[in-house]
Design goal:
heterodimer, A: alpha/beta, Rossmann fold, 2 domains, seven-stranded mixed sheet, five-stranded parallel sheet, 12 helices, 14 strands, about 45% helix, B: about 300 residues, ABC transporter involved in vitamin B12 uptake, BtuC, about 70% helix
Chain lengths: ~425, ~300
């Protein structure tokens, strides 16, 4: 009798322990490790958008019955910190997934660590083809959302061709590129040179529109420069149909001001910095300036998801999303969450397949679908958008299916 | 603070010849260079003053300019104050800030070696940059004033008029400083402290007060620069940093304590930079030329000194 009692008691204890273990596993959060430069507005707003996405997921009961936890590490825009962040997230926090981040330079340093852990990674930023080559074709666990640099160049070509076709008066024959002399601007110039060479041979996205291309470098105001007049006089002499500058946000106003000063008034004035100055649209000089980007606040007028994101982000953080890295950060988490829900498991192979097949209607105004790019298997967005500042507002002018306004042409002071 | 007349005439003559040649060859480069060079001089003058009187190497010089720019930006966005009008409160604010920073920190390293000064002022510059980053983030910002984009046309020669203000203000600040140093009692005391602090102390000059005054005034002058610059530039936490190096370069080229030389050096380097910028595809060489000219001047001066 006594023996039976001990046996039953032992069984009860074992069952209770097993039950507690299983319920612990049920409550154990799914950990998502994010690496962003928190001191910069891109990283700050991307992280805030990720927090919004995680909050919305947890408010609906989490994923697979488990809560979701976001663990964020600051890369400080430094390659060594970005790489260390991956190691910390993998070994100390033991995250299930990696998400983030921005800057190709930082990402290049992270890639060896990512390859070491081979966890499913959904990377929002980093556009350099060098990062794509460093990842290589075999990394089936790697998903990249931001268009690569060559895809961006291609999409602008397609966009301008479409616009020139739709609006007869718009000409893109002569293009002048003013680029900052550092790595960012030089890479832009080199990619345009390739596109111009292709166009000369009747190939590529600019084949039907580009007849003449010239470029010149300047020292960015962000790096102690800020004197553009000599270059702008050269551009004025060239008389381009489309003038484009590839520099930093700090160059935007001085470049426009000096253009006006030297009487340079190209029909299309395009800026392609990674980020624009705060309240740039409030500056009268911004009117009719064209820009490239993945997102504009105006998208909320044509997309329900974009409207939802806009409203909820403001409600949660009491500030407006000011950079496309905000909706991109939201997309980063939501896309992963949708794929996990579709897969019904965290098992790596099944989840990779689910990520390959998941389509997510994103606040970027377009649906995120995965397809191979030049090197990697899993590329997300492939096109940028052409936007224009019009009366203090950023409007989408291409792709036409999400356009919020027609292009105002020509540019004038 | 010395300036030999014979030597200055020679330099002036060479500068005039240089300007005339550039003016005939490329008038745009000449005007761009004069404007840019005057701005460099204007920023370098207070640094040269501190270097000449206190002997302090101030690595936070550019960051004091940044603080002035953000202060004016704040006055403009909050109270709609025009940047040029905002110079007055900014000068007062920077004067007080300079005095506080001197009392709290700089005072302790004036008699120490240059390494302590460099480490301290480097620390101050980092604190200022990060503080600005916390309040305004790293995003570039700007103010809009319609007058700062005005231009004039004389025949086919078109040029911006606003930056001519840099030339005027650089000359005014230089003349003001020279008059102060030579015509006022405090200025003469400052001059004496700069030449021989121990001797000045013996004759009853309060050296600490002079140091405090000079450092505060030097920081305050940056308020004038900030108000003049802001309508034409975007601001971000590191906007002033590159000017520290350029200011040191100008001070080195002009010679220790030579305020007039700062203006000549600034104009020469500014025009040199503009000339390089105007040669297609050689814009990237402007820094090399800037510092190349500087090295040549320093070497030739040391060669003359050795003779």
């Amino acid at each position: 009798m006594k023996r039976n009692s001990i046996l039953i008691l032992s069984l009860v204890v074992i069952l209770a322990f097993a039950f507690s273990l299983s319920s612990y596993a049920q409550d154990d959060p799914i950990k998502i490790g994010a690496v962003n430069p928190l001191g910069d507005i891109t990283g700050d707003q991307s992280t805030k958008a990720m927090e919004l996405a995680v909050k919305e997921i947890n408010d609906k009961g989490g994923l697979l019955g488990r809560p979701v936890e976001l663990i964020v590490v600051d890369s400080e825009f430094k390659p060594e910190k970005g790489a260390a962040a991956i190691d910390k997230l993998a070994t100390v926090d033991e995250v299930d997934f990696f998400v983030g981040g921005m800057s190709s330079g930082v990402h290049m340093a992270q890639i060896p660590s990512l390859k070491k852990y081979k966890k499913i990674t959904i990377w929002a930023g980093a556009a350099s083809y060098l990062a794509e080559e460093a990842i290589g074709p075999d990394a089936d666990w790697y998903f990249h959302l931001h268009p690569w640099d060559y895809q961006q160049g291609e999409s602008y070509g397609i966009g301008w061709s479409d616009i020139a076709e739709a609006r007869e008066e718009v000409e893109i024959g002569k293009v002048f590129l003013a680029y900052e002399e550092g790595g960012f601007g030089t890479a832009s110039f080199e990619s345009y040179e390739v596109l111009a060479d292709q166009a000369e041979e009747g190939e590529g996205p600019y084949a039907d529109i580009l007849s003449d291309f010239e470029g010149g470098s300047f020292k960015s105001a962000a790096l102690g420069g800020g004197e553009y007049r000599a270059l702008l006089r050269r551009a004025k002499e060239f008389n381009p149909d489309l003038f484009i500058w590839a520099g930093y946000g700090a160059d935007a106003i001085p470049l426009l001001a000096q253009s006006r000063e030297v009487g340079f008034e190209p029909p299309l004035y395009v800026g392609a910095p990674p980020g624009w100055p705060a309240d740039f649209e409030a500056n009268p000089l911004s009117d009719k300036v064209v820009l490239y980007g993945m997102w504009a606040p105006a998208l909320k007028e044509v997309s329900e998801v974009a409207e939802h994101f806009w409203d909820e982000y403001i409600k949660m953080h009491q500030e407006r999303p000011a950079t496309y890295f905000a909706p991109l950060g939201y997309t980063n988490i939501m896309y992963l969450a949708k794929a996990i829900e579709d897969a019904g498991t965290l098992e790596k192979e099944v989840l990779i397949e689910s990520l390959e097949n998941t389509e997510y209607d994103s606040p970027m105004g377009t649906t995120l679908k995965i397809a191979p790019s030049n090197v990697i298997k899993h590329q997300g967005f492939t096109r940028q958008k052409i936007l224009q500042y019009q009366d203090g507002k950023q409007n989408v002018i291409w792709p036409f299916e999400v356009a919020t306004a027609e292009i105002e042409y020509p540019f004038s002071w | 603070m010395s300036f030999s007349l014979n030597k200055s005439y020679k330099i002036l003559l060479l500068l005039v010849i240089f300007i005339v040649i550039i003016g005939f060859w490329n008038p745009n480069a000449l005007l761009d260079g004069l404007q840019r060079g005057s701005l460099y001089s204007l920023i370098a003058l207070p640094l040269a003053l501190v270097l000449g009187i206190l002997g302090v190497l101030n690595l936070a010089h550019g960051e004091f300019l940044t603080v002035g720019l953000y202060f004016i930006f704040m006055l403009n966005t909050r109270f709609n104050l025009d940047p040029l009008v905002a110079i007055i409160p900014t000068v007062i604010f920077l004067l007080i800030l300079g005095a506080i920073i001197y009392w709290l920190t700089i005072k302790r390293v004036v008699k120490e070696g240059h390494l302590s000064q460099l480490l301290l002022t480097f620390g101050i510059s980092l604190i200022l940059i990060e503080t600005i980053n916390i309040f305004w983030t790293s995003m570039a910002r700007n103010v809009y004033t319609s007058y700062s984009y005005a231009s004039m046309e004389i025949g086919s020669f078109r040029f911006g008029t606003y930056e001519l203000l840099y030339i005027l203000i650089a000359v005014l600040v230089l003349v003001g400083l020279q008059l102060f140093l030579k015509k006022t009692r405090l200025g003469q005391a400052t001059f004496a402290v700069g030449q021989n602090p121990k001797g000045a102390k013996i004759v009853g000059i309060n050296v600490n007060y002079v140091y405090l005054f000079v450092f505060s005034v030097a920081v305050a002058i940056l308020g004038i620069v900030a108000g003049t610059m802001l309508p034409r530039t975007a601001i971000f936490p590191e906007v002033g940093s590159p000017f520290t190096l350029k200011s040191f370069a100008l001070a080195a080229m002009a010679g220790m304590g030579n305020l007039n030389g700062i203006l000549f050096a600034g104009v020469t380097l500014g025009i040199g930079e503009a000339v390089i910028n105007s040669i297609p595809n050689y814009g990237g060489w402007s820094d090399i030329v800037f510092f190349g000219v500087l090295i040549i001047v320093i070497i030739s001066r040391s060669y003359r000194g050795a003779r």
